[in-house]
Amino acid sequence: MALDILKGRKCMVWTFMGNTRMYTALKNYGDRLSQVGLFSFKVDATGTITESGVAISDMLTHINMWPHITWLLTVRNDGTSSVFTVLRENTDGAQKHFTESRLWWPYWRSTFWASLADGISLSAGTHTITVSVDVKGVQFYGFRVCSNFSEEPSAGSASFTLSPRHFIDVDGNKCQPDKGFKLTCEMLLRKPDSALIWYEDFQDTDILETNYWKTLSGSWKVWRQDEYSDSRVYSQLDGSGQFAWNYDGFSDVHLRVRFAFPSGSTARLAFSAATCSAA
Questions:
Q1: Measured between alpha carbons, how far apart are the two ends of the chain, in Å?
Q2: Record's superkingdom (predicted)?
Q3: Which of 6, 101, 230, 266 has the maximum number of C-beta atoms within 10 A of its C-beta?
Q4: Distance (Å, whole) CA 102 – CA 108
């Protein structure tokens, strides 16, 4: 299975309640690789919403002005269920906090399912699911309460119809080999394209996250085009010295970095013993 090169959407600007915010659409993993989720669900997407001030559609919910939104869902029969969703939520008061994982490939897709609670006992009747957010403009794609769930990646399938070729003999009649045809299958292999597993433009926060980055020497800081803006504005990392990506769990890595060089400066990427330089 080969991973196709990224074909993601560009940044888009949406307006919520008169406030303009810029959001970067997450890159898709590729056109040929899809994540397939199989549900045996009891409650799909939405129950009864008890809060106002949010934009509701069949596809997603924009949570903007209000800090949280609550759904009431009704379970018809007693039993053990699982709840799959995205974001930070709680079910009947039991809270679970979802955070982004930049090292997990479904994060780079438009949406993916995450488990809120697995194997919980829900009695027949009404239960609550509350979504809490830390920033405005969060997009919530709903939830499902199901008795069974499985998820697996799929690259699709193809079928072919074969039509044996007939020949014309010396008498002008159609003929074919007396022992039939032999079918030989050939698979064309190619080196997989790079799959995006990490992206950083330093636009999310003006503080370097020590979980991801490590300053080995010198001084480094995030420069933002508008340091007081709460939108994602152009940003870059400024400084001098040695600066490391704080992760060593990958192999066969393809890195792409953009440098800006002040007069008389140089930059270098180091991969353990191997070094790539730019000036």
A1: 38
A2: Bacteria
A3: 6
A4: 8
